[in-house]
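note to self: dont lose this again. the chain is below, predicted strucutre after it. 227 aa total, dont forget to put it in the shared folder this time
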Amino acid sequence: MIVAVHQPQYLPWLGYFDKIDRADIFVLLDNVQFKKNEWQNRNRIKTANGRQWLTVPVMYKHPQLINEVEINNKDKWQHRQRQTIISNYKKAHFWPFLEGFFEEIFSPEWQYISQLNIQAVKKLAKLLGITTPIHVASELGEFSEDPDERLIALTRHFDAHTYLAGIGGKGYMDLKKYTQSGIELIFQEYKHPVYNQLFGAFEPFMSVIDLIYNHGEKSLEILKGRL
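---
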């Protein structure tokens, strides 16, 4: 059994969902430190004018954990993002595909960024056709604060013996700890597919919603490099 773990991100890119799909169990690590100006409260879409950020404003105070960071709902971010998405994807072939999803994302007043991201990741995975069970780390109990020991403990929690890490993990993970713990460590080497987009030449590393708007029910096969 393969376990993969990642911080909950906002409308993540294709590789994030490939990681979920490759795992037998996926854990959203919501109880580690929030990283400002990364992917936990923003992501990018392709527009007629190039890349554009979709950002959820947060009230972050160092060193808060992800599940402690509140959203600044005085900022009308939901209305602004809704209008941006309509402006850039209304003419996409699969515009109706995400209407229900964004109604759920843009209607409630979310208190915490983790709540929003967890819901969005689960819903997007389901829309893509990914069946991997998704768990939330803070609901599983207490684990070591050491990054590697935490991941080993989460893997063992599910009686698994294989941990799937991002390729960047080779640069900072203590590989010996996994070997000594009897955990096989494998790395995701994701090759980004090229697919048809709006607005000219292909732009990689966009939010997965860009793929879904352009390819609908075929998105998972494209994401996995099968089309």
